[in-house]
Amino acid sequence: MAERINAQSIGFPPRKSLLILFSMISTLFVFSWFFVLRSASSPNFIENSLLPSSSPRLFVIAVDNNNSDSRDPNEAESSVTNRAILSNGDEESSQDSSSVNCKYEGIAKPLKVFMYDMSPEFHFGLLGWNAPGKSVWPDIRTSIPRYAGGMNLQHSIEYWLTLDLLLSEHSDSSRGRTAIRVRNSSEADVVFVPFFSSVSYNRFSRVKPPSKTSTNKILQAKLVTFLTAQKEWKRSGGRDHVIMAHHPNSMLDARTKLWPAMFILADFGRYPPTVANVDKDVIAPYKHVIRNFIQDSSSYDSRPTLVYFQGAIYRKDGDGLRKATRGMQSSKFCLNIAGDTPSSNRLFDAIVSHCIPVIISDNIELPYEDVLDYSEFCVFVRASDAVKDKFLLNLIRGIGKDEWTRMWRRLKEVEQFFEYQFPSKPNDAVQMIWQAVARKVPAITMKINKSMRHSRSNVRREGGTKSIPSPRNFW
Ligand SMILES: *[C@@H]1O[C@H](CO)[C@@H](O)[C@H](O)[C@H]1NC(C)=O
Ligand SMILES: *[C@@H]1O[C@H](CO)[C@@H](O)[C@H](O)[C@H]1NC(C)=O
Ligand SMILES: *[C@@H]1O[C@H](CO)[C@@H](O)[C@H](O)[C@H]1NC(C)=O
């Protein structure tokens, strides 16, 4: 009688139809769930609010435990009004870092990173920084260019990682650092490409006449020309290069040419597996846009909403952000459904709101999952289960106060791993990403060594990589 559909029974459809199917299921799920709520007769259930008129792109479902009207339980909680802004690490630091018992101690030897001195048009120039004279980098001891604001910030990893490398040259010691910049590329573990590809996509994708091509496209073409001409690239075929492409649409042209490199991505949703995959690449968190819930003294009982979901793009306007903040901070669980990409910043907003994420995204790849057990603080639900009548609600209701509290405590411990800041601190997002890169280094070395096996007898080719090999015979 169970109307279970599994992959075997329906065959395995091609990627594209899977994607369509999945979006359909997601949509269906949202609606079916809405009706589940409407038809639930439990006295325990309440409050679903759809707010189409006041904020057309906001879709909120909240299930209450109690019958009271409690849409704004944290009315007094007002630390939320500002959107996430660049911090210098002072005001926004997460509270619990000293009490964290974590096994993610910095690596014994810092990762040695060679960074190309690329023209500012590839990095800080995109943020409006005017290089004085011939300088390539801003003097970060005197002033730090700001990253583009608003929702651009969620993909700002390029900014934080680059600043961290620049700072490593100014700090007296390498203590507390996971990565240091080296000037001699022969001594480097990896080669870092400081192209701010996300801001390039976000801000420079429009074609401005008389030009026929967008700056974003021009820069990518220039980048490919530049990189493939470098001795460092030729030496390794690009395998030891680190390229940031956090916005899912960034590097759209260059990715198929530079794919031997290690990408730092938000997810693999828009990449063919030959170009990007979990073995070669690193998944980095979004920078959360909801502010940290500092001094969160809430409890299972004091969070009135059972499950919170905010769909679509709550972004841009401060009002949507305020509502989302209030919603997440006053809910026990926060729903994460795969949107147009498998990942979204909603997950990281939930984490810093200490709202237990319920993840319905079968293909999601999570940051640092090789060292971090997400099941300690997230609930994972298969999409095929989530569409079953009342499955989700029953599952969530089945998680009692003790279990919830354990997960909530763990959230408060792990949130530091998702914090981008400058200067970086031990085990924050910046350093966790460097550590993830460092863990890939042995595999890269092996790949390079393998590719060099025949270099002695291979007289015609110098350095091994005149042309970029095709993905098929690369591995
Ligand atoms: C760079 O490092 C390599 C290997 O340690 C060394 O042989 C070379 O002389 C160095 N180059 C410079 C310019 O210091
Ligand atoms: C929910 O109901 C319980 C028991 O009736 C009560 O103790 C609690 O304060 C209520 N919570 C809210 C937010 O109304
Ligand atoms: C690759 O070769 C280098 C020497 O060029 C050696 O030090 C290293 O151990 C080798 N790595 C692997 C994984 O074989």
TrEMBL record:
Entry's localization field: Golgi apparatus membrane
InterPro entries: Exostosin, Exostosin_GT47
Organism superkingdom: Eukaryota
Primary residence: Golgi
Occurrences of domain Exostosin GT47 (ranges): 109-322, 324-394
TM regions (residue ranges): 18-36
Membrane topology category: Single-pass type II membrane protein
Pfam family, one: Exostosin_GT47
Biased composition range(s): Polar residues: 76-85
Record keywords, A-Z: Glycosyltransferase, Golgi apparatus, Membrane, Signal-anchor, Transferase, Transmembrane, Transmembrane helix
GO CC, alphabetical: Golgi membrane
Annotated region described as Disordered, given as residue ranges: 69-99, 455-475
Single GO molecular function: glycosyltransferase activity
Residue runs in coiled coils: none
PANTHER family referenced in this protein's UniProt entry, alphabetically: EXOSTOSIN GT47 DOMAIN-CONTAINING PROTEIN (PTHR11062:SF216), EXOSTOSIN HEPARAN SULFATE GLYCOSYLTRANSFERASE -RELATED (PTHR11062)
Family: Belongs to the glycosyltransferase 47 family.
Protein name: Exostosin, GT47 domain
